[in-house]
């Protein structure tokens, strides 16, 4: 991300230089008077000055922070779009992590570090009040029409907090509501109008899906969160391929693998670092202190992840090709690579082929898609 920011600053400087030259030329140019001929063809006495051209609109100057924030938001939007069906369709496979959810995310301008607050205000129209930044597809909030950009005023007639601590205070306010109710009354501000909606709570896998600011081809799960790096997002060209990665990491969480390996705290530290705008990439050299997963644990995640993807409506037939291609291009020796943490490629591919056959058979017989 620092590279993106620096390149953007260089482009902005070049733009300002070009504008300076254009302004200087305009200031030095002197209009040349012309004369209009009379009916006899002789020059008329009246001098006709050219009509001044309509000035071009001032170019929109984008700051480096705005460019960086826009890239982050676009990548997170893709993650949320692909993860949504996986979360909503699989509470049966992540029982220990299934929760009632409101079905949307909300942020204030303080959700970003200090240098990005002006960009968050300009690009995302964030201010002191919590504003909806994403709606989970298929959730209750989605079905009743909660929209991105809605400002949150109250829930069950209790005013929602504003300011730097709004997210934390709102979470504390909402926690007891979502555990004891099946729906909540939400008041939002949209186009200067207050709108009240009754939001059915959605039972879903309660995994937070995060973007990792690293070009390494990797993904992590700490038992509660799933993180996919910018590099993995770039490698997974289609949403279908990204679904394979997300489903597999969700499966690790659903099966309790990070806790079983006693690596949850270590992975959580890696995730906490990589979600920063400018992470310390030195902290994730090699495997970042995470032990490679065993064959049995990885195979279990592959199988459960395939079932999760199928239940969410994704086509699972390309999974083996995707994982084989990733391991071939980024083998176990690749620094910070996914295969270094998940080395049992041949065993995993055999399990994926078998699970794919099993899933198709259950779909043909209309049996429940359970491993």
How would you describe this structure to a colleague?
- The chain is an alpha+beta fold and 371 residues long.
- Among the domains are: 103-200, Pdz3 Domain; 208-364, no CATH class.
- It contains 13 helices and 13 strands.
- The chain has helices spanning 2-28, 64-89, 117-124, 140-143, 166-180, 230-235, 239-254, 257-260, 264-274, 295-311, 319-329, 338-341, 345-364; strands at residues 34-37, 43-48, 98-101, 104-107, 131-135, 151-155, 158-159, 183-190, 193-200, 202-205, 208-212, 219-221, 225-229.
- It has a four-stranded antiparallel beta sheet with strand order 7-6-8-9. Strands 11-13-12 form a three-stranded mixed beta sheet, sandwiched between helices. A two-stranded antiparallel sheet has the order 1-2.
- β12 (219-221) and β13 form a beta hairpin.
- α10 (295-311) runs parallel beside α13 (345-364).
- It is globular and about 70 Å long.
- It starts with a helix and ends in a 7-residue tail after the last helix.
